[in-house]
Amino acid sequence: MTNFAIQSTVGPVISSLASKDKGTMGNKVDCAGAQLKNNVVTGLQAGAVAAGAAGGVYGVAKNAKLARGAAKVFDSIMNGFGKLIGEKDFAQKINNLAKNLVKDNANFGPEMLKKVTDAIRKSKGALLVAAATLPILSYISHKHSYKMGQIDQKYTDKAQLQKTL
After folding, report:
1. Between residues 96 and 7, which one has the greater pLDDT?
2. Element spanning 14, H or E
3. What is the C-alpha to C-alpha distance for residues 152 and 156, in angstroms, rounded to an integer?
């Protein structure tokens, strides 16, 4: 079985060539070319966003100041969310829950506890990067699907017009 990436990239191209409602072979090839171009552009856009996100996560993981800053932003977002649901100091409750979970389930010395606390701080930064990245990737995916439909319809209409003339 082929993997999803191959199916989603090559599938619209092959289906354009095999379609009976695209008219002439020239029209089918033009449609397939437009679909392939759309797939390549979308792949490059998504790759650039994912690379940026990976760089952001790497930066948070390697830079303590950046991790602290990201953790502060994450905490302020959580406190804002807490206000919406009627909880005061929601970020502190989440932090305490994470710390207690670690303390209750592991017998760590002070050095290891510090490492775990740093990891939690860094994971907040990673969550922040992911929270910013996912809507962008969703938009790129939606735009790709919409354009795929537009391309298909354009060449179907073109074939119908050629048929009527």
Report:
1. 96
2. helix 4-18
3. 6
pLDDT: is 11 or 165 the higher one?
Answer: 165
Specify the residue for token string 């690379």: 51
For residue 37, which of 16, 58, 53, 22 has the smallest C-alpha distance?
A: 16
Q: Rounded to whole angstroms, how far apart are CA atoms 13 and 86?
A: 51
Residue with tokens 């790497």: 58
Instruction: Measure Cα distances from 101 to 43, 49, 106 in Å.
Output: 40, 33, 8
What is the value of pTM for the model shown?
Answer: 0.67
CA dist 40 to 17, 33, 157, Å? Answer: 18, 11, 24
Rounded Cα distance between 120 and 115, Å, is 9
